[in-house]
Each structure stands twice: as structure tokens, then as C-alpha cells.
Amino acid sequence: MEYQKRSVNGDAGEYLVAYTITHKLGFPCRLYGVDLGVDAEMEIVDEYQHSTGDIIKIQVKTVDSISSKESASIYIDDRHIDYWKRFCLPVIMCCVDLSETKIYWKQIITTEAYKTGGESKKITFCLKHDLLDKHSIHKLRQLVYPPKSKNIGLLLEKLIQSAERLPSQRVMYGDFKTIDTTRSLCDQLEIDLQKVELLISNFPWRVSLMDMRSLHNIKSQIQGVRNTLSYCELDLVDGG
Fold first, then answer.
1. Which residue, 124, 144, 164, sits at the end of a domain?
2. Cα–Cα distance for residue pair 80/23, rounded to 1 Å
3. Strand ranges, E, within 28-108
4. Is the domain of 138 the same as that of 208?
5. What is the pTM of this model?
């Protein structure tokens, strides 16, 4: 049986990533035996080497060498990008340069298009800033619990409390002032809702299924109240 170069390079790249993460970063790294678009995972530990329970998924692409001194790009099939974006855990792409035994990494962002002129998607690495080394430890810890994601819980709690002020969809309105006041409340709730949804699109692993159901219920409630407002407004205009 022939051990083909493609397999040699792929295995070498994955082993180098696992070694670097384990030995240099001090994070446990597990290589997967079955590759369904993710090659490995790392488990984050704190500064006292205690596991936080947070996981980062890893996909590895290996190249013989990188000719540029500034950047490197790899091309990925659309279906892989879409697959990674559906994860409820952070996913990073590692580009391994075998000739220099260096690794570069980037997070797969759910809101990033990764567009190219063709059918595949392009991920570009900065050889200066995206190097996987001991300086990546803080960045990786922030990846699973970024400062901005801390706002999700507070914004969601505020949104739920504000939504409790919405009247029932069955309430009828007899004057324009009350209609305007209620519509302003709906407008503000939708602004707050958009803020929460934007954070969730970037940090989906920071919300629960129950939180998502709460958001869905609030959106339905707002739409129901808006429908009632429009009906009552037309009725008042018609002299009802």
C-alpha cells in the first residue's frame, strides 16, 4: 500500500497542530479519527490549568510552503463554510506551512462572506498576526468567552422585561395617542432585539434553546401588537 504524499502532508499538518496546541499552548487537543469537515478540537483551560469546559473545533489545511512573506490564502468549498457556520461552538481554520513548521489560524465568522470570484471561498491569513503560538492563548480564551458576548445576557434580560410592557394582542385602541405610544414601544423593542440577534449571530454558543424561544415569542408578540395597531388606526380614520 502506498502512503500518498497528500495523506503524508495532511497527517503531518494535523499532528503539528495537535503538538503545538498541547505542548506550546497547554490546551488538550483531540484529533478526530473520522473527518466530517472538522479535524480536531481543543479544550480551553484557565491560567491555573483548570478546564473551563469550553471547546473550539479545528479544521486543518496543510501546504508544502508559502511563497508570500505577508499572507497566505486557502480555498474552501462552500458546503464546508456553511457547515462550520452552523456549529454552536467556535470553529477555527489552521493553515500549516510544513517547510517552516508554522501554523496560522483564523476563526470562522458566521457573518463573514469569504467571497471570491469563483465557486469556492477564500480564507486569508496574515503571516505576522495570525501565527499560532503562545501569544494566541489569550485570544483563544476570548474566543469562547469574548467580552462582547457578556452583553448578551444583560440585553436579553432587558428585552424580556421591556416586552412585558406590551399589551395583549386582543387590546383595542380608541385614540391615536395610545396607538403612537404603543408603536414607539414596539420600535424600541425591535431595536433592542436587533442588538441581541447581532451578538447571537457572532456568539451562538452563548445562548440556550430557551433563550432563542423567548426571542421568537417576543418577535411574534411585537408583530401581533403591530397588526392590532394598524387595524385600530384604520378604524379610527374611518370614524369607528
1. 144
2. 29
3. 29-31, 40-45, 51-63, 71-76, 91-97, 102-107
4. no
5. 0.68
Contacts of residue 40, Cβ cutoff 8 Å, sequence gap at least 6? 14, 17, 18, 29, 30, 31, 32, 57, 58, 60
197 in the same domain as 130:
no
- 182 lies in which domain range? 147-237
Do 193 and 128 belong to one domain? no
16-67 confidence digits (pLDDT tens) = 999 999 999 999 999 997 777 899 999 999 999 999 888 999 999 999 999 9
**Look-up of cell digits 480564551:** 141
In the chain, which ranges are continuous DSSP H helix?
Answer: 5-19, 78-85, 136-144, 150-163, 176-202, 209-237
Cα separation, 13 vs 228, whole angstroms: 60
The reply to whether 164 and 77 lie within a common domain is no
User: How many domains is the chain partitioned into structurally?
Assistant: 2
Chain-centroid distance, C-alpha 205: 7
For the segment 146-156, what is each residue's pLDDT rounded down to a tens digit? 766 777 888 88
Same domain, residue pair 120 and 152: no
* One domain for residues 132 and 214: no
Sheet-wide strand order for 51-63? 29-31, 40-45, 51-63, 91-97, 102-107
